[in-house]
Structure formats: C-alpha cells, structure tokens
Amino acid sequence: MTGPSDGTAERTADAPDTPDAPASPDADLPPRRSDTTRAGILTAARERFAADGYERATIRAIAKDARIDPSMVMRYYGSKEGLFAAATSVDLRMPDLSRVPRSDAGRVLVTHFLTLWEDGEVLTALLRSGITNQAGAERMRAVFTEQLLPVAREICPDPAEAPTRAALCASQVLGLALTRYVLRFPPSAALSREEVTQWLAPTLQRYLTAEQP
Predict the structure, then answer these.
(1) DSSP string covering the chain
(2) Is the pTM of this model over 0.70?
C-alpha cells in the first residue's frame, strides 16, 4: 500500500533547475534625460563653432539651436571654453601603418584624413576656431601632436626627425582642409577624392619616409 505523498516530487518537478539571473538594473532603460541634453548641446555647439568660429559663436546661439535655456549649457559645461573643449574632443583614429606596406603610408593617410573631414563637423569646427582663436589653435596643436606625431615617429627613418616630418604632413592635410572644406576654393573643392589622393599622397610619403634633403 502506497502512503500519502508529501508533495516533494511535485515541488521538485515544478521547480526550475536554476534561479533566473537578476536583470541588469540598466537593461531596457531609455537614455537619461541629462545624456540626451548633453548630446544635443554638443551637436549644436559643433555646428555653430564650425559655422561661426570660436569668437562669433555664443552660448545663447548654441542654446537656441539645441532648443534649451542658455543656463542649461552653463550648468553642464561651465563656460564657453569648457563647451568648446568638449565639443572639439576628437579621436583621429589614426591607422596602424605597421599593417600596411611602408610605400603606401602616404596614400593611407590621405585617404584616412579625407574620410575624417567629410564624415563630421568636429575637425571643421576645430580648424575654423584655430584660425582665429588661441584656444582653438592650442587645441588643434594638441590633437596633432598627440595623435599624428606617434605615427611619424613609427615610420620615419630617424625618430628624432619625427616632429618636423609630422608638422610637414599637418601642413598639407590642414592646408587641404582649409581650402577644400572651409574656404571652399572652387578648384580644390571640385577635385574628386581620387584626384586629391593622387596629388597629395606622394608628398606625404616623401615627408614621412624620404631621406632628409
């Protein structure tokens, strides 16, 4: 005769093998309002700095573009200088030239910079501001010193010459950007990417790898 069940079998069968993992507290949550506001401010600031330069761009105009009160800009960034630094924080995402033939370094860099200039407003804003404002000029120098100089040092024949070679490369890249994307000289703006690369790549290649004249 079978005795009455104590319910253990039923409870065992019904119980899951392992407890459910706790859901992440941030899972499926929408972005915080502050994050959205910051992103909107930075987008408006980049466009305004690119269009007007540092001196002419104002907190009031940027706030109007972002559709917020100017006090919110000051709340998040403290000052026009702080906003400019945040809006022009840029990673050049320099290519690893050790992964390409040394003879292709100039072509790879020209192609890379063309993509950077054409895909965003940050570098354009920085260039416009660097022409007319000391803070912009210092920011531009820092970006290229920190990110272009190591590339030149890695590939040039004598690492001691890297600062000079990087500066010469920057003169070509920035000169092209100024005439093509800021001043929009018709002959420069009319060149295709392929034509720019054909003209400019041999010059950057010489600056990077040729023996010192």
Answers:
(1) -PPPP-SHHHHHHHS-SSPPPPPPTTTTPPPPHHHHHHHHHHHHHHHHHHHHHHHH--HHHHHHHHTS-HHHHHHHHSSHHHHHHHHT--------GGGS-GGGHHHHHHHHHHHHHHH-SHHHHHHHHHHH-HHHHHHHHHHHHHHTHHHHHHHSS-GGGHHHHHHHHHHHHHHHHIIIIIS--HHHHHS-HHHHHHHHHHHHHHHHHSPP-
(2) no
